Amino acid sequence: EILRGFRSVTGPDSPLLSYFNSSDTNLALVRIERDNRPDVCFTIVVNRWHDNVSYFAMILEKEVLDSSKDSMDILPGFVGSYPNYFFKIHEKDLPDFLSLLSGKEKVNKVKIDRFVRYGINRADPRFWQEYDWFQQRFFQEQPVEAGFFDLNRYYPPARIRQ
């Protein structure tokens, strides 16, 4: 049911893709807290469209990106080793989170603030606790493939929530 909800909001028309358009932002891990059941993890992958993927074009990557063709996939479990952001969402808040990802609302400050509320910023006191949860779950679910997450690409600016 959760996966069906995520699949309904993926695609190139998500207004948040136009806001989160940095070529450095392309992978987020999402923890869904559930009552009386184990929490589950999903990965948001932003697919950045490149007009040219030759070696020389990749040196000047920003010149060959076309954000109008970007898309998004939300996959169960863990994909990738370099998360750019963590999200923690209670299952009761999932409809609100999904509405933010859908193309039904224009991006504005209120919408972005609602979206960021679900995120775990690196200045958040819960950051390491959430990192540990994702890391332990990764080792549990994929013991052969799992490794340590590299946080060198956890870019969002640090800020303290009020």
UniProtKB/TrEMBL annotation:
The lineage of its organism: Bacteria, Pseudomonadati, Thermodesulfobacteriota, Desulfobulbia, Desulfobulbales. InterPro entries: Fatty_acid_cis-trans_isomerase. This is Fatty acid cis/trans isomerase (CTI). GO terms for molecular function: isomerase activity. It comes from Candidatus Electrothrix marina. The keyword Isomerase applies. Keywords: Isomerase.
